[in-house]
Amino acid sequence: MLATVLLEGFHAVKHALRFGADVHPLITTDLSAAISLAETHAPDLVEKFEAATEVDKAGFVLRVGRTHPTGVAGFAERPELPFDRNAPIVLLDNPRNLGNFGATIRVAAGLDAGGVISTGDVDPWHPNVLRGSAGLHFALPVARATTLDFDGELIAFDADGDLLAGPIPDNAVLAFGSERHGLSEEVRAKATRIVRLPMREKVSSYNLTTSVAMGLYHWVIHRAS
Question: What per-residue confidence (pLDDT) applies to 142?
Answer without folding.
Answer: 97
